[in-house]
Amino acid sequence: MQRYFIDTADFSRGTVPLPEDVQHHVNRVMRMEEGDSFILCSGGTCVEAELLSENEAQVKGLLENDPELPVSVTIAHGLPKADKLELVIQKGTELGADAFFPFEASRSVVRLDEKKAVKKQERWQKIAREAAEQSHRSRVPYVFQLQSKNALIQRLQEADYGIIAYEENAKSGDHEGLHRFLETVEPGADVVIVLGPEGGLTPEEAEAFSPYAAPVSLGPRILRTETAPLYLLSVFSYYFELMR
Questions:
Q1: I want to staple 22 with a disulfide (CB 3.0 to 4.6 A). Which of 18, 73, 147, 202 is the partner?
Q2: Which residue range or ranges hold the Ribosomal RNA small subunit methyltransferase E methyltransferase domain (predicted)?
């Protein structure tokens, strides 16, 4: 069933005015008629609704199932080249990420001025919204504007748990850290995962983040920057959803 996210809605009123972008998709793209059903989500709550008119829907009932990960995972990613972050946001949303926190890493090749950073954030947020609709999420992950490393340290200090995907741990042969970390995390926790761009994090960055996040290996193979966050989100889904 088609799903739409709207910024603010009072589902308890029984009827919901449809925003212009939803109206356009319902009426012009999907060509729905009065009485056709779809799903509306706002603030983590989703309802089944039916079309009353071109710009209004009737709430039919609350959807009880919760498709969200039992832990809140923020992907803090050193800005990579080209459109790799767009792939991470799209697929990471499908895999359950709660937020994306791009930051300027020492090895980030791309540099964005303030104007470009704003436009990028708007595009990234749109990608997250579309992926959330496609994957039947109950909320849209928030994508931050490009951040500094100091802002990332502050975010790590606020989180319940943090880990750093650090390839030096893989080279050393220590592959148990991720499993040990998962065993300490409680459902409902706020977790930040830090990943570098192409070339990874520098030793200085890993040292700066390590008081607030544990460096871990992702196995014996070195993963691409766009593969690593998807691997970790899959691990979190398996551990907290399929093993419980």
A1: 18
A2: 68-236
